[in-house]
Design brief:
Strand content: 5-15%
Shape: elongated
Helix content: 40-55%
Protein name: UBX domain-containing protein 6 isoform X5
InterPro entries: PUB-like_dom_sf, PUB_domain, Ubiquitin-like_domsf, UBX_dom, UBXN6_PUB
Order of helices and strands: HHEEHHHEHHEEHHEEHHEEHEEEHH
Number of helices: 14
Structural class: alpha+beta
Largest sheet: 6 strands, mixed
Organism: Equus przewalskii (Przewalski's horse)
Pfam families: PUB, UBX
Length: about 400
């Protein structure tokens, strides 16, 4: 609409040129694309745009979801975004009382953010343990000098490494050093640990193949009754990388820019700008509408793949073995096999999709003289169905 208004004003202000100019060509191209896209969408909105809902403060009434939440994989606790790191740290530290080896490995991989340094340190520790495994009779391999340059640069700088050495059977000891008056501190492998080489090998493999402990995004699955408000999303500020004030300012500036420049932007230029806008979002709230009108809602990362949504929907179905399709607005079919992220499909920061059974399978079922159950979702989900308000 802004583009059309800008076109009208420009045509009134500018005298007709004798021949077509480059701006005339672009203007004509934009006009054609605007008309074509409006015809396809059946809407008078500016085509190709994905207008973000204005974020609301957490706790305000009628939010589509109260916020973005996560689940701690160690405790199962539900966490807010600002609680994730602190609660994960607490859970790992509390794990030392029950399994110090596993806790120290989690600490090494989770507390240290530089993944290259972690890999270098872990590989060095593995080399120490390999030398002990390959040369069990060699005493020199059972001692690690703490002031050694390699130890200091690669291992001492990482949180959790000292706890790991002590948990697998190393003990600190002051030992004499040849040609040196004062003793130095070493890690020395205990006799009991040396007698169990298979345990050292197992701990080494655990250390090498461990991953950082990360809170998982809580889907916050909800089921709603049929509602004319299915396509309306009031999102909390958690769904936006910008603060609420920054987003309002961004929307105002963008509206002003559209007023000035949309007449000079071709479809390719608009699509490129839209892709840049899509990268602003970290999360997306998706709803799937079923043939009976019921709605299934969940929270996803904007960069998750479409296959994650198919899996989420499949878990909610009574007949989870039957193939189905998901359609975005405008009838665009989302393929489970395509490796596309939600932000690449324009499904951020929210979207309503339509569920349908695979047409060929439906025909086969009807040809066999049977019908699908009218209730698509699992009974336990329907028992907790809500009204969308």
């Amino acid at each position: 609409m802004a583009a059309a208004a800008a076109l009208a004003r420009l045509e009134q202000k500018q005298p007709r040129a004798r021949g077509p100019t480059s701006q005339d060509s672009i203007r004509n191209q934009v006009r054609k694309e605007l008309r074509a896209e409006a015809t396809v969408s059946g809407s008078t909105e500016a085509p190709g745009t994905n207008v973000a809902p204005e974020p609301r403060e957490e706790g305000s009434a009628h939010l589509a979801v109260p916020g973005v939440y996560f689940t701690c994989p160690l405790t199962g606790a539900t966490l807010r975004k600002d609680q994730r790191d602190a609660r994960i740290r607490e859970a790992i530290l509390s794990h030392f009382s029950t399994d110090p080896v596993a806790a120290s490995i989690m600490k090494i991989h989770t507390f240290n953010k530089d993944r290259d340094k972690v890999k270098l340190g872990v590989d060095t520790i593995a080399k120490y343990l390999d030398n002990i495994h390959l040369h069990p009779e060699e005493e020199k391999y059972r001692k690690i000098k703490l002031q050694n340059k390699v130890f200091q640069e690669r291992i001492n700088c990482l949180e959790g490494t000292h706890e790991f050495f002590e948990a697998i059977g190393f003990q600190k000891a002051l030992l004499p050093v040849p040609d040196q008056e004062s003793p130095e501190e070493f890690y020395v492998l205990s006799v009991a640990a040396l007698a169990q080489p298979q345990s050292l090998e197992r701990h080494k493999e655990q250390l090498l193949h461990a991953e950082p402990v990360r809170a998982t995004l809580a889907r916050q699955r909800r089921v709603f009754r049929p509602s004319p408000m299915a396509s309306q999303f009031d999102l909390p500020g958690d769904f936006f990388n910008l603060t609420a004030d920054e987003l309002r300012r961004e929307q105002r500036l963008r509206a002003e820019a559209v007023e000035r420049l949309s007449v000079l932007r071709t479809k390719a230029m608009r699509e490129k700008e839209e892709q840049r806008e899509m990268r602003r979002y970290t999360y997306t709230l998706l709803r799937v509408r079923f043939p009976d009108g019921c709605l299934l809602q969940g929270t996803f990362y904007a960069r998750e793949r479409v296959a994650a949504l198919y899996g989420f929907v499949r878990e909610a179905l009574q007949s989870d073995w039957l193939p189905f399709e998901l359609l975005a607005s405008g009838g665009q079919k989302l393929s489970e096999d395509e490796n596309l992220a939600f932000n690449e499909c324009g499904l951020v920061p929210s979207a309503l999709l339509t569920f349908s059974w695979d047409a060929a399978v439906l025909e086969d079922i009807r040809a066999a003289g049977t019908e699908l159950d009218s209730s698509i979702l699992k009974p336990e989900l329907l028992a907790a169905i809500e009204k969308l308000s």
